[in-house]
Write a structure and sequence with these properties.
mainly alpha, MetI-like fold, 10 helices, 75% helix
């Protein structure tokens, strides 16, 4: 009973220190605020848009920003402000799904490679080397060529693109952790490999995985927007921000607002994830703790 109470107090103390360190880091707070706004828009954007994000009105095409249309209208007379709000869900979805693919596969491969070493390590490492032999954008384009253009295929492509980064980082962390005495003691006491991996190694690499996932979210969103800009991602009429840039580039010299505001939206959300990721890295890295 006393042990459980003591453990609960230690957990509360750790959580309190974690949030205290985040509150002291103003840039991390700014990043968290940006992400909170994006998540809020992703869930409730359909009810917050002043206009229908898909409704076309060619009589109002390419109107400049005004009180009625805060960000102006695009080449089809659609409200850019409404489309950016509605499109937040697609950018967030792309980031979550693609990072989920990269994290889950990369975590599994990294754990197996770093723990078993030998033939398993050599086999996984060669596979990762093959993936990294291709430039990242070309690897993503090759996947889309096979699967076909579309939002969901972009998620898969960016997810496969992210696997090598997760695998290499997790593998390095596992190799370092396996040199600790508590891992060797667990093996000497007869603990099964699965128990060691799940109960001892996985919790110690979780912080690294969280930080990398946050930072890679920004890269995934930016990469998906770039692929959509090339016409390989979200297809019309989805209001994905990269696709909006692609739709508006023909009118850039006449009405710059059609690409300015989607570009700013991408920049802000990427900045938010980078700021939060940097803050989490400083907090979760034990070498940087005060």
């Amino acid at each position: 009973m006393k042990d459980s109470i003591g453990q609960e107090k230690r957990e509360k103390s750790t959580a309190h220190q974690f949030w205290a360190r985040i509150r002291r880091d103003k840039l991390s707070c700014l990043g968290a605020l940006i992400i909170f706004v994006i998540v809020f828009l992703a869930f409730f954007g359909a009810w917050l848009t002043p206009h229908n994000a898909f409704l076309q009105d060619l009589g109002k095409r390419l109107q400049p920003p005004s009180f009625t249309y805060p960000f102006g209208t695009d080449g089809f007379g659609r409200c850019i402000f409404s489309r950016i709000i509605y499109g937040a869900r697609y950018s967030l979805l792309v980031g979550l799904v693609s990072i989920g693919i990269g994290l889950s596969v990369g975590m599994l491969l990294g754990l197996l490679s770093g723990f078993y070493r030998g033939f398993v390590d050599a086999l996984i490492t060669r596979f990762i080397d093959i993936l990294m032999a291709f430039p990242a954008i070309f690897l993503a384009i090759a996947v889309i060529v096979v699967l076909g253009p579309g939002l969901y295929n972009v998620m898969i492509a960016v997810g496969i693109w992210s696997i090598p980064m997760f695998t290499r980082l997790i593998r390095g962390s596992v190799l370092s952790i396996c040199e600790n005495d508590f891992i060797k003691a667990a093996g000497a006491l007869g603990a099964k490999d699965r128990t060691i991996l799940i109960s001892h190694i996985l919790p110690n690499v979780a912080g690294t995985a969280i930080v990398l996932s946050t930072l890679r979210m920004a890269t995934a969103i930016l990469s998906a927007a770039g692929l959509s800009f090339l016409g390989l991602g979200a297809q019309p009429p989805l209001p994905e921000w990269g696709a909006m840039l692609n739709d508006g580039r023909a009118f850039f010299r006449i009405t710059p607002h059609v690409v300015l505001f989607p570009g700013l939206a991408i920049m802000i959300v990427v900045l938010g994830f980078n700021l939060l990721g940097d803050g989490l890295r400083d907090i979760l890295d034990p070498r940087l703790k005060e």
